[in-house]
Fold each of these.
Amino acid sequence: MKKIFFLAALAFAGMMQAKTVTLDVNAPLNPETITYDESGVWKETYNEDDYATIDYQSMSFSHAAWTDWNFWYGFTIAKCQDTTYSDMADQFHCVAGGGLAGKGTPYLLAYAAEGMSEEPPCEVFFDAAYTPQEVSLCIGSWALHNVTIGGAGHTFAAGDSLVIEIEGLDENYEVIEGKKVTFFLADYRSANESDWKLNQGWEACDLTALGEVYGLAFTMKTSDVGGYGSNTALYFALDGLKIANKVADFEDIEIPATESVLHLTQTGDIQSGSFHFTQEVADYGDWGIYYFGNLPSNKSDNIYESNLDAEKSVSGGAYEGNNFMVWTSSYAGQDGIALNQADVVPGFMLNNTAYAVSSMCNGDSFAKKFGADDWFKLTITGSLNGVDVNTQVIVDLAAAGEYINQWTYVDLSTLGEVDAIRFALTSSDTGASGMNTPAYFCMDNFGAEKPAGYVEPERAKFGDTEAVENVETGVKAFKVLRNGQLVIVRGESEFTVTGQSIKE
């Protein structure tokens, strides 16, 4: 059964259109349309052949049935307005009489049957890693009937409880030990009756404590247990599940020391949030080891004195927290970002580096001091399945006598759905051998939506002040990209790097 769920969950991968996804019970992907019987129950509830899952955008709900036995468990869809229970025909009722949208609107009804499988009875599978935000829950009418009137067991009294345990699933859709949230539908554990709780409609349950997971497992537990298991009917309703694709804020990257940069020992990926950032490592023997692509940094000042200060933002530090990412062009030109899953990426926060701004404001041994007509540009290209999408995002890091000197939001949604992103830097300061301006920029909160109340900051003007100090002491070697070739300069000598060799 788990393999069926797994394949069904992947069948709709890539449908995610935003960082945050909220369940819309009325808009499933599978089935494409919902048909209800006269009482408001999905007609395919007992279909054992076609629906191993009920699929929505980015999430898939487990469903199991035996047609001949008229039996089901997991999740189904209903929009019953009746809130009462008198017999089995009323098992699909919930005490809210409809979903979050109101009376008679659709909701997911769960039957957390015991002993039907080694897996939890009710599961939700995500198409990628997400951080669940919240879900709205309410008690099934049959379960409420058992709590308040009895039935197979006793009417609830002091010490009794009915709970939903919600656990996180890993990438193999297995329960993660210790990732659990408990929600009480009935809580009579207190000796003080005035403290007792009984659910009477939709209540929001905070799921953020689960962190990043690939799905959820729902299990119901009751204190009213007999020789054949639970006496309480294990039914609840679900709506409004909200999940967030985790932003790369880089705080989950361990940088070995303060005021430093993370350098890998060999070319590889650095993961933050739901994204993979490539760092290229090249060993040039006596010339040292050079690092290109994505360089995690926690450097907090903006003083540029030498190329050892290349991984600093011009405003000093990250947009939020301690860590940010510095991107620098490599001669291979392939150090970009890969996504866990094809997605529409909302955007990210961008800044210039102190190194690039120092060069543009003051000039250096490679680059000229920028004038009113000079420009420095970032071009962002997305691809899907190895094919470039039709649009690009272009950011003027410096233009018309101004430059970015504060964290600025960049909207990437116009790229559409992508599974990889790459960067290219160009400049008006380009000679016969290529661009002279240092090929660096900073980013933070990659994959984030535009912050609430965001106002784009004003840009600094060249000539007003020298934004960062430019003291070229202690410089042993510089690197610059010229016509796609990495050139390393020491003193009066220049060396062009081809592959892993150095030519003078």
Note: The first helix runs from residue 2 to 11.
Amino acid sequence: MDYTKKATLLSSSNINDLSIEDYQFNFDESKVLISTETESIYRHSSKSNFYVYDFKTSKLKELTNFSKGKQRLAEFSPKGDKVAFVRENNIFIIDLNTNHETQVTLNGKINEVINGATDWVYEEEFSFNKGFQWSSDGSKIAYYSFYEGDVKEFQMQMYGDLYPSQYKFKYPKAGEDNSIVSIFVYELNQQRTTPFDIGTDSDIYIPRIKWSKDPNILTVQKMNRLQNNIELLVGNFSSDRPNSHGVKTKTIYKESSKTYIDIHDNLTFLEGASKFLWTSEKDGYNHIYLVDGKTETQITSGKWEVTEVYGYNNSDNSIYFQAAKEHPTQREVYSTKVGSNDLRKLSLKSGTNSAEFSNTFDYYIHYNTTANTPHYITLHDNSGKVIKVLKDNQALIKEDGKV
């Protein structure tokens, strides 16, 4: 394979000089979703006008009717033939083959009901703002719905024009009412929406949701307001379930702490929803655990922290992760195998190291940087061998006078 060739896939000259502010490819890279005219909302959230460019036909089209308002959080379905997005607190789905637009939710209202996105608390405290997820086969969308009608309102002046304006938004202070959160699943073929049973206590948080390996099984993380107890709930949304009006849910994992449980994205499913990797600070340091039904096995241990889990390779039972093992101010990339105590260090340079792995874990892109050096980016195979230097930033280093 020739790794030396490079080509321009798309430039503004191909798309009527549109400003490409962000983009994402569909699964086979035959289409790209482009965001333009982006406006920030809060720390992470924004709204844009989105276009779809088809590489096969070399045609560019608006995702939806822009006169209805800008869109948020647009995302391809797993098969790449549909795009889901949020507009005016409601969820919509565009079929790219027919251009048919389906409105999934109808009750969205500014400062009252949010569908498919998050409220200010979740964006700020749990560091995410996309409140929907496609199932792996694209047949379903799980989504958050926030009722913030009882949350007290905060007002602030916005400057920039000749006269300032008042901006109002829902902002719960300590001890005040939070939004009431619900989780729903919309099935595209049946065009039906089913609630996920999270219990009767409304003064809770749902910091994460995630589809399991089975595209019918949704998992929901439920946390008390004190944030020292967390449960992992599962529900089966198969189309042939006996009761189409409700889904029974069950708890498959619980964790408690005397102080606080840190929220993470290190939930990795190995089989369905019954076997998964999870990170926890329960032994005093953040480490990886394998949960298999009622059996729990600690995979990593020691006086150091796992900082991110990249994934699990089914072919050889390898787990790839980032850790601060050698020093708290540094990060290294490692792999280990289930049932083995051996760690294989994949990063060779000191400083902060991170990686992005291919779906099969045959290759990864490695990033290295320090307080005094810019990113050094390389392509590797899974043995650690360097295949190609993608970016060495030598020009920047010379400009800064470091060499």
Note: The mean pLDDT is 92.
